[in-house]
Specification:
Length: 625
């Protein structure tokens, strides 16, 4: 075995979205880092949809940005359409979504990685994790080279024994056109990690010049475009529209008569399937009463005529994909540029991880992204960032960085994985967060930027800018609570025009802003102090804080109760088998997952309230022994 002279602090395996964030965080925290991937040209490749963000996912991206990650900045530079979703609903579920130029996104991220001074990037296929005793100490590649590292981060995506399926055809691949990592999967089994299997699928890409867009519903971007990064002041790039199409009876007939062609229906795809992002054939089979399904025709970039058929995920053969697509209005003469396909792959059951994403069995080995059973670029990137931070903290012999469920969607994501595991590709939704009114997209910087600054991932300038913004919000809230609107004819006429009741006595402006019909911008016409200059960010923060003041306070009270349980720590060496009265199932679950607190223990499936009460009594008794 040939060894390279240079040794690394952190070795990151995989150049996807998790690997990019992990390697950048490691290097920016001062560690000597190596990113090793099977294909340098596909770093940060968007193997599925060409977009970042959306419901639940934008919350993760904003949190990555607040912690000093790169994803939001990169999509702001390379986006081709920007939209805010759910604008007619409350702020907790509003989320930006950005359509990407797939090629530019990849090139831009690689450029950032290459400029990072503490980071080396190499192309090779890793075949083995080197373990001495119970510690990971390096890696071996198929070219016969051994790299030593103090900590290893695995971010292999769908490459572990990846198998692509299209109709009756199947072949090994990490994704279309790339080799799978079969030997690395064997290495993980050898060191004692439990491996399971998942499957998912992608839709076809079509040639835009063969689409009749005049028959489709045009979906333009927002003006002005809403950026994803807190550091982006303005988006100036010209936006490109997306389009909306629909399946119909003819589409459904083609799919129904060919169901036996799909490995996702026949069971040839062995892995556990996604519940929330099913294939088109599974939708038709599962919901036969539904007459049509939305299909989004999304551009792949500025300099290509290729379009992504979002919503038409499939495992059918290319012939059947084409037949079904051509039944849709506007796609009668469409041609497929790249067929869709199903893929199954290995993942590591995430209950084998600590909340820091380090494996319990092997010290200094961290896992991030789809290898942990998640689905989506945003879920992967957030894990990569956390794994990178924690790997550096580990080799510095510092306490791990763990976000709890009340602090961030990232905390919800990781806690769900390590506490409950997953039986399908895990996808983030706002409904997964108990405290979503305080975990909004707009305030991710307020919640998390102090951590990013502490780790050296956020500049002093950005940190101070954030502090100024929230100071302005607090000051403006105080002013609105003191300032009053006068009961003049002019004020009451303005209130009537807004569709709200006139005031009968002088009323605090804050009280008026709490009315559903009144927006912050309307106060300018009512407020006598009209010399203020308030940014849109500050105005939004003020409006949300006042309109939802009561709800936010109630949620903060719930958080306090939650934190009391999280503060009740359980010793890492606690012997559950000796706890009399604890049910056998609970003993097995608690011994396997080894929760770090009573709060985490209470969220384990199969552990009931009586088990928690017994555990609390025993821990209390231990304090006085």
């Amino acid at each position: 075995m040939r060894k390279l002279e240079k040794e690394y602090d952190i070795i990151v395996i995989g150049g996807g979205h998790a690997g990019c964030e992990a390697s950048l965080a490691s290097a920016r925290m001062g560690a000597r880092a190596l990113l090793i991937t099977s294909n340098l040209d596909n770093i940060a490749h968007m193997s599925c949809n060409p977009a970042i963000g959306g419901l639940g996912k934008s919350h993760l991206v904003r949190e990555i940005d607040a912690l000093g990650g790169e994803m939001a900045k990169n999509i702001d530079k390379t986006g081709i359409q920007f939209r805010m979703l759910n604008t007619k609903k409350g702020p907790a579920v509003q989320a930006p979504r950005v359509q990407a130029d797939r090629r530019d996104y990849r090139i831009s991220m690689r450029r950032v990685l290459e400029k990072e001074k503490n980071l080396d990037i190499k192309q090779d296929l890793v075949k083995e994790i080197i373990v001495k005793g119970k510690k990971a100490t390096g890696i071996k590649t198929q070219t016969g080279i051994e790299y030593k590292g103090k900590a290893i981060i695995l971010a292999t995506g769908t490459f572990l024994r990846g198998l692509i399926l299209m109709g009756k055809v199947s072949f090994p691949a990490g994704r279309m056109g790339e080799f799978p990592a079969d030997r690395l999967s064997d290495s993980l089994k050898k060191i004692g990690l439990k491996i399971e299997r998942l499957n998912t699928c992608t839709p076809p890409r079509i040639e835009g010049k063969t689409v009749n867009f005049s028959k489709l519903i045009k979906q333009p971007g927002d003006t002005p475009p809403p950026p994803l990064s807190f550091s982006t002041k303005e988006i100036k790039t010209k936006q490109i529209p997306c389009y909306l199409a629909f399946t119909n009876d003819a589409t459904h007939k083609v799919i129904k008569k060919n169901l036996r062609d799909s490995p996702l229906i026949t069971g040839e795809a062995k892995g556990l399937p996604p519940r929330y992002c099913p294939s088109i054939e599974e939708k038709i089979a599962r919901f036969p009463e539904k007459k049509r399904h939305q299909i989004f025709i999304e551009p792949e970039g500025r300099d290509t005529t290729e379009y992504y058929v979002n919503g038409f995920f499939t495992g059918f053969s290319e012939e059947i994909q084409l037949e079904a697509l051509r039944t849709m209005k506007g796609l009668e003469k469409v041609k497929i540029a790249k067929p869709g396909y199903a893929i199954e792959y290995d993942f590591v059951s995430p209950t084998q991880l600590k909340p820091s994403l380090e494996t319990k069995r092997i010290e200094n080995l961290f896992l991030a992204g789809q290898i942990n059973g998640t689905s989506g670029y945003e879920e992967a990137a957030s894990q990569g960032l956390m794994a990178g931070i924690n790997a550096v903290l580990k080799i510095q012999e510092e306490e791990p960085f763990i976000l709890d469920r009340s602090e961030a969607y990232i905390g919800v994501l990781i806690d769900d994985l390590v506490t409950k595991g997953t039986k399908e590709p895990y996808r983030m939704f706002t409904s997964r967060a108990e405290y979503r009114l305080i975990l909004r997209c707009d305030n991710a910087d307020q919640r998390l930027i102090r951590y990013g600054h502490r780790f050296g991932l956020i500049s002093d300038e950005d940190y101070e800018r954030c502090q100024r913004k929230y100071t302005q919000i607090e000051e403006e809230i105080k002013r609105l609570k003191k300032s009053r609107a006068r009961t003049t004819k002019r004020v009451n006429n303005l209130l009537k025009k807004l569709g709200t009741d006139p005031i009968k006595e002088d009323t605090p402006l804050a009280q008026i802003l709490k009315r559903p019909e009144v927006r912050y911008r309307d106060l300018v016409k009512i407020d006598d102090e009209d010399e203020r200059k308030i940014s849109s960010e500050v105005a939004q923060g003020v409006e949300i804080a006042l309109k939802y003041e009561g709800y936010i306070k109630r949620e903060l009270d719930q958080v306090e109760r939650f934190k009391r349980l999280e503060k009740k720590k359980i010793p890492s060496d606690f012997d559950y088998s000796r706890l009399e009265g604890l049910r056998i199932e609970s003993k097995e679950k608690l011994s396997s997952i080894r929760p770090i607190s009573i709060g985490q223990a209470s969220r384990i499936s199969g552990v009931n309230p009586s088990d928690i009460s017994l555990l609390l009594i025993y821990l209390k008794r231990r304090e006085f022994e």
